[in-house]
Amino acid sequence: MSFPHQRPRRLRRSEPIRSLVRETKLGRTGLIYPMFVCPGTRVRNEVSSMPGCFQQSVDMLVEECREVEQLGLPGVILFGLPDQKDATGSEASSATGSVQRAIEAIRRAKLNLLVITDVCLCEYTDHGHCGVVENEQVLNDATLDLLADAALSHARAGADVVAPSDMMDGRVGAIRERLDANGFAEVAILSYAAKYCSGFYGPFREAAQSAPQFGDRRSYQMDPANAREALREVALDLEEGADIVMVKPALPYLDVIRMVRDNFPVPVAAYNVSGEYAMVKAAARNGWLEEKRVVLEILTGIQRAGADIILTYHAKDAARWLAS
Ligand code: PBG
Fold first, then answer.
1. Disulfide check for 130: which of 122, 246, 248, 317 has CB 3.0–4.6 Å away?
2. pLDDT value at 91 more than 80
3. Residue (of 225, 259, 246, 223) closest to 312 by Cα position
4. 267: burial class by Cβ within 10 Å (0-12, 13-18, 19+)?
């Protein structure tokens, strides 16, 4: 029996009935807010390509974290800017680095927030690559130790979750081993398992001052054309001990999010990255898109594709809109 007996519009007649049959219910509890921490005090510089996002010193960052907590968001992910960059990104694992001090300050403030940290070298190396470089090649195995050092320093400072984003082979295993050997078996790993070599990271590289000084990241980040390879990356990270796996970026890779969700019984995260945010902000500023409406549509779409957790620069706005 089809039309006129079947009338899908019956379930769209009013908001109460639409709400009753809604399949995807976006909530604040799955949103993580990314933040950039820099040296100094009283520093709060807006990132020009990411309106509403700031590079800020620890004191200012903690104030914004209070707001994040009050908005009912579960946590933040921290990215650090160093005082000094060098060939091996040594400040990435400094006990007095920006990220490490920020974690301690958030802990001291007793905020009810999960603290996730990005583990990578690109913000800390003078060449801007995510690993050690020799003859313009990014070395895999020589990088693993340094990533494990960084992750351990975050755990020591009080991080709940460490999130390696470098795409070196074997880094999840190296980090898991290092954490366990030092008494941090309870610290979880959120791996950027399927991280694509994307043009959508442009604004982030301004925010984190992490653009590669030569070449690009194609020899370690994934080719945008590949989906099956993402399943292989996820499987490897899970074998090595990842607790949560992430697909990044989100919007051009909704199919990958769905495949990961359907193939593995673990929580799936998606990173709605800086370029995705910048496009919405730019169009909204020009009056070309209605910001609230498209942001909620985008986040709903990412969740509908299968993401349990969404890292997004829209998190604070979305939390306000979802509360009202
Ligand atoms: C570091 C890192 C990047 C992002 C997260 N971690 C940049 C990159 O790989 O170039 C991008 C986040 C964003 O664009 O919002 N490796």
1. 122
2. yes
3. 246
4. middle
CA–CA dist 80, 60 (Å, integer):
14
Q: Identify whether the C-beta of residue 277 lies closer than 8 Å to the C-beta of residue 313.
A: yes
CA quadruple 75, 223, 213, 47: dihedral positive or negative?
negative
Residue-wise pLDDT for 246-304, tens only, equals 999 999 999 999 999 999 999 999 999 999 999 999 999 999 999 999 999 999 999 99
Nearest Cα neighbor of 270 from 288, 289, 250, 251 is: 250
Q: Give tens-digit pLDDT for 64-78.
A: 999 999 999 999 999
Beta bridge partners of 70: none
- Measured distance between the N- and C-terminal CA atoms of the chain, rounded to whole angstroms: 41
Give the confidence band of 1 by pLDDT, cuts at 50, 70, 90: confident
Give strand pairing partners of 222.
196
Contact residues of ligand 1, CB 6 A cut-off: 118, 120, 122, 130, 165-166, 201, 204-205, 210, 273-274
**Ligand 1 atom at shortest distance from the alpha carbon of 195:** 9
**CA of 248 relative to ligand 1 center, distance in Å:** 9
CATH 1.10.10.1800 fits 24-323, yes or no: no
| The pTM of the whole model exceeds 0.90 | yes
By most ligand atoms within 8 Å of CB, the mutation choice from 124, 165, 311 for ligand 1 is 165
Q: Are strands 44-46 and 54-56 parallel, antiparallel or unpaired?
A: antiparallel
What is the token pair recorded at 142? Answer: 């020589």
